[in-house]
Amino acid sequence: MTEYAIEARNAVKAFGQGDVAVRALDDVSIQIRKGEFFTLLGPSGCGKTTLLRLIAGFETPTSGQILLDGQDITALPPNRRPVNTVFQSYALFPHLTVAQNVAFGLQMLGRPKAEVDQTVERMLALVKLEPMAGRKTSQLSGGQQQRVALARALAPTPKVLLLDEPLSALDLKLRKEMQVELKRLQTETGITFVFVTHDQEEALTMSDRIGVMSAGKLQQVGAPREIYTTPVNRFVASFIGETNFLPAVLGATEAVLGSGDALALNAGGKTGPATLAVRPEQVRIVSAGEPGSLPATITGWVYFGTDTHVHLALRDGTEVVARLQSEATGDSALTKGAAVGLRFTDGALQILGD
Amino acid sequence: MSMESEARSRQTRRAWALSAPALFLLFLAAAGPLMIVLVYSFLLPGKYGNVEWGFSLDGWRGILYTRDIFDGTLKLADAHLTIFWRSVKLSLLTTIITFAVGFPTAWFIATRAPKARALWLFLITIPFWTNLLIRTFAINEVLRNEGIINTVLTRAGLIDAPIRMINTDFAVLVGMAYVYLPLMVLPLFAAIDRFDMRLLEAGYDLYASRLAVLRRVILPIVKPGIVAGSILVFVPSLGAYVTPRVLGGGKNMMIGNFIELQFGQGRNWPLGAALSMALLMIVMVALLVYVRAATKGSNPHG
């Protein structure tokens, strides 16, 4: 018995041949635990959908293995994998009713009719679509179609449910509702969810763990908080949330910024040029000349309602954004061109790899 | 009368006036000749063809019965029934064969890249450039005793005597399948082209085998194309004239040839007219039954 529902070992997927071959997936190894809500996050073309299709069986890896419950399923066709997919386009069967769509997988598995009917009823109740059972799918709204797709994929009780950007076609309000709904379904059914998205907010709010992907490689795997607070590299830091990047030279106990200002920092033995990252909400504006603060100038600000983003420039022109609570600041306190001091909250500075 | 209703009736009159030429043409070209055939079927045959004015049901009776030359009693006409049965059988088989060949063809074309697709469709329509008679004689050239197949097989030493294919039902079937194949492929292509290929993945994902995806997903969704193609092939097959004439010889007649016979050598126009009307009715009934059956299957709960 293994604790992993899905495991990819050195999975490579190349499209094309020889010199023109493109590695959509470049040596990816990943472990997805049983019962967790795992999100693959990355920009389009990063390989997240390819990885999902390898797990579903629609593509076979160029090399590497896919394991389900510790068993090698690399060679199994999709119809023999206990894995179901919610497609981005929903891909509902237009010639069948809602109930028939949900029943399809169970019928193909050869389950007795009584069991099929019972499960379909339970699934439609789960996604709150009982009154729509007899409708054709074309008569449903986008959100309702989404729920049918979910019910259809959940009905055969797969070991893993794969979701390929299922919320991207919905408007903002519906998307928020479905995020809550998906999380509820995952908790109620206890099924492992592998969710693909390019929306970092979606990933942060719903996931137990996130795998950030870029250029066919897995950049970082971790809990949302871990990914957000301690990104391992510049890509992860910039893709998830907003970040200030400060080029610096590391010394034994301090870092010297491009502006010539020194910051006390324990780099843990690392020295030489590096990039420091700091989140806008961890930047504080204090009065100019306060001990331990960096001299800076206010270049402008943008009002966002609860927050105000204040744009500042260090002495060498390096731009830093500070996110302040609007109530605490007040526009009157801000003056363009005013000289101020900058301070970072404790532990806010992250040293990034390339 | 209010001004409004007066204007409306004037508009109606103008609409009728404008469509009059079209209606006149339709009547002349479609309904008119049909009425003449219907009237002829109730008249007496003339001695040298044509008809004599006098009401008679002999034409209609002649479809199924023949009058004994000696004692004048009516007997069931076995020869006629054989012709009807052969027509229906060959037409059904033609429809099935064109579907079996046409479906993979249409699927192949619909899954090509757009540019290649245009080329393949163009190739499918090429046979329409040539006269039906010439295409049928081409098949004759392939199948006859001294034709390509027999020559090649004899030269190769595989057979001693030529295989007799010409003037058989088989030859008629080959000819009709060849001639009507494009009529099956084109509507099938139109239906498959609209088919969302992502549904295939959805099917496989939900534990359906390849065969199950074909039966439960593809065929039900492209059914309108299958219905259209089958009608386009079955209807002209049933009334086929040239193909059975050229490939079936004089013996393997179909309804079309039988009708022609009555207007020519048979000199029995009323029987020919009655047969034509009967063919029309067979087609209509067949279509009704077929379409009813085809639409029922799509919604088992309806």
TrEMBL record, chain A:
It comes from Gemmobacter lutimaris. CDD domains: ABC_PotA_N. One of its GO terms (cellular component) is ATP-binding cassette (ABC) transporter complex. Belongs to the ABC transporter superfamily. Spermidine/putrescine importer (TC 3.A.1.11.1) family. Part of the ABC transporter complex PotABCD involved in spermidine/putrescine import. Responsible for energy coupling to the transport system. It is an enzyme of class 7 (translocase). PANTHER family: SPERMIDINE/PUTRESCINE IMPORT ATP-BINDING PROTEIN POTA, SPERMIDINE_PUTRESCINE IMPORT ATP-BINDING PROTEIN POTA. The keyword Membrane applies. Coiled coil: none annotated. GO terms for molecular function: ABC-type putrescine transporter activity; ATP binding; ATP hydrolysis activity. Transmembrane segments: none annotated. This is Spermidine/putrescine import ATP-binding protein PotA. PROSITE patterns: ABC_TRANSPORTER_1 (PS00211), ABC_TRANSPORTER_2 (PS50893). The complex is composed of two ATP-binding proteins (PotA), two transmembrane proteins (PotB and PotC) and a solute-binding protein (PotD). The gene is potA. The keyword Chloroplast does not apply. It catalyses: ATP + H2O + polyamine-[polyamine-binding protein]Side 1 = ADP + phosphate + polyamineSide 2 + [polyamine-binding protein]Side 1. Its EC number is 7.6.2.11. Keywords: ATP-binding, Cell membrane, Membrane, Nucleotide-binding, Translocase, Transport. It comes from the Bacteria. Residues 6-240 form the ABC transporter domain. SUPFAM superfamilies: MOP-like, P-loop containing nucleoside triphosphate hydrolases. InterPro entries: AAA+_ATPase, ABC_SmlMolc_Importer, ABC_transporter-like_ATP-bd, ABC_transporter-like_CS, Mo/tungstate-bd_C_term_dom, P-loop_NTPase, PotA-like, PotA_ATP-bd.
